[in-house]
Amino acid sequence: MKTLNCKKEKGLLGECFCTVKSCAIENGQKISNEDLLELEVDILVPSALENVITVQNASKIKAQAIIEMANGPITPEADKILEKNNVLVIPDVLANAGGVTVSYFEWLQNLENAHWSKAEVLARLKPMMERSFDEMWQMKQKIKQSARISVYLVAVKRVVDAMIARQSSQESKSS
After folding, report:
1. Cα angle, residue 76 at apex, residues 134 and 149 outer, rounded to 5°
2. From the CB of residue 25, how many other CB atoms can be counted at a distance below 10 Å?
3. Which of 66, 86, 99, 152 has the most CB within a 10 Å radius?
4. Who's near 170: CB < 8 A, 6+ residues apart?
5. 148 pLDDT exceeds 90?
6. Which pLDDT belongs to residue 31?
7. Domain ranges of the chain
8. What is the percentage of the chain residues whose pLDDT exceeds 70?
9. Radius of gyration, alpha carbons of the chain
């Protein structure tokens, strides 16, 4: 809360440095974007630019997990380094799926001339996101590969399953 209050007071988060007792810029220092990526944090969330984690800085990443909110913030070469260093990467296609799904919900509402409350949107979104994460995680455990490879395999499996179901449906209609 102190950081949020400081941001409200100063107008910029960059003007704040907070400890348990107080917030004041004179206690802080500005750092570069490169240094920001290499901070000792639990979770790193690159959320603006692609290719910010590269072969040059991947080995310096200290986060235990990375949630890709930007599209493609990690290069393929850096991905391999992070995997080798046991950094869990939640890939952009999974991390951003909530926004894409809510856009679909908006489209449905427009078609039906409906309005869902925030609670209803979240009630519909939550099980979908949880299922997607669980399927990725189960695949990751099964194949002993990265979350990125696992989420891609889950996606391909969904497409194949849908194609098989469609084929079966067409065959039963023609019989």
Report:
1. 25
2. 14
3. 66
4. none
5. yes
6. 81
7. 1-30, 31-174
8. 89
9. 21
pTM listed for this prediction = 0.78
* The two structure tokens encoding residue 163: 């194609």
Contact 53, 73 (CB under 8 A): yes
Over residues 54-107, the pLDDT tens digits come to: 999 999 999 999 999 999 999 999 999 999 999 999 999 999 999 999 999 999
How far is residue 57 from each of residues 42, 52, 69, 77, 169, measured CA to CA in Å?
A: 17, 9, 18, 11, 51
Q: Which of 87, 40, 35 is nearest to 66 (CA)?
A: 87
Gap between the Cα atoms of 29 and 14, Å rounded: 9
Tell me how far apart the alpha carbons of residues 59 and 154 are, in angstroms, rounded to a whole number. 28
Q: Which amino acid is at 56?
A: Q
Structure tokens at 106: 């908006």
CATH of 31-174, one of 3.60.20.10, 3.20.20.70, 3.40.50.720, 3.50.50.60: 3.40.50.720
Residue 100 and residue 120 in contact, taking contact as beta carbons nearer than 8 Å:
no
Chain position carrying tokens 């509402």: 109
Mean pLDDT, range 8-36, rounded to an integer: 69
Token look-up 């039906």 returns 112
